Amino acid sequence: MSFRLGLTRDLLTPAGGPSFGPGPLQVLAGNPAIEWEYLPETVDEITPDIVARYDGLYVNSPRVPGAAFARPDRRVRIVARHGVGYDSVDVGALAAQGVLTTNTPIAVRRPVAVAALTMILALAGRLFQKDRLTRSGRWHERTAHMGQGLTTRTLGVLGAGGIGRELLALARPFGWRMLAADPFVDAGVVEKLGASKVSIDTLLAESDFVVAAVLLDARTRHLMNAQRFAQMKRSACFVNLARGPVADERALIEALRSGTIAGAGLDVFEQEPIAPDNPLLAMDNVILTPHALCWTDECFDAIAREGLGCLVDFSLGRRPASVVAP
Predict the structure, then answer these.
(1) Do 254 and 243 have their domain in common?
(2) HEC-encoded secondary structure of 220-237
(3) Residue 184 burial (CB < 10 Å; 0-12/13-18/19+)?
(4) Is 53 one of the catalytic residues?
(5) Are 20 and 91 in contact (CB under 8 A)?
(6) For 68, which DSSP code?
(7) Annotated catalytic residue within 243, 249, 270, 306
(8) Which domain range does residue 49 map to?
(9) pTM flag (> 0.70)
(10) Catalytic residue among 272, 298, 318, 319
(11) Residue 319 is among the residues annotated as catalytic for this protein
(12) What is the pLDDT of residues 175-218, one digit of tens each?
């Protein structure tokens, strides 16, 4: 029997090719019974009509609501996310209908950790301020924009899951002090990486760079709020490559405006795409990227191979390796 697979169209480049390159599509050859195509329509949300056409879906950014699976003609039995985050998928509702959700936790670890380090290094070195000085002929003002060395600073990582631990491993050679806050990870795990497990209050009070590396759920939504930004050093920077709602954006904007914190590096926002009138766009002490800083050819290739591999396993009657627990 054939297994019909639909891929969302936001996985295509403007030129019409796969954004992850042609290589990962060869993974689908692992089961010749798979018939696949890109969805004929571009959608922000998976609909009941889409769910009735396919046995599996490979989804990038569209939301996957439980209501789409309520019709009796529903065919989809697995939804594979192109990425590690699954806050856009109603995992519990799908599980109640017998539908599996998978993600790609392995493929994203190194790319996101590298992206977080990129933000830190750019903020510490005042990269963009110095770029503007050079372009505007203000060369002799460079002594007024001294950067921060890292060996005397402290890195704080909120969340010591796969990405958080990868960041600690990559950051260790810089010789700084490293802290991690995560109630679900044993202290010994982070100690092996050269970090100390501390409370979130201690981490915020003592870190010079605070990096959010948590999944978005009810417990982490607005984890960083006005009270917690006030706990940070006035010289500290906040970096978020997790999900926008992990931080209360209004509170973050006020903290940046008032000097409660010194700067921020943001790849994610509460509203995406970011609104053109968002105050963050006018701030010189903020680096902004379009939820894509970790996107490289290597990153997308690895994500697609892991995600499509989950679909092949399912189509062959095997349980995929990266099933999200409801």
Answers:
(1) yes
(2) CCCCECHHHHHHCCCCCE
(3) exposed
(4) no
(5) no
(6) G
(7) 243
(8) 3-107+296-315
(9) yes
(10) 272
(11) no
(12) 999 999 999 999 999 999 999 999 999 999 999 999 999 999 99
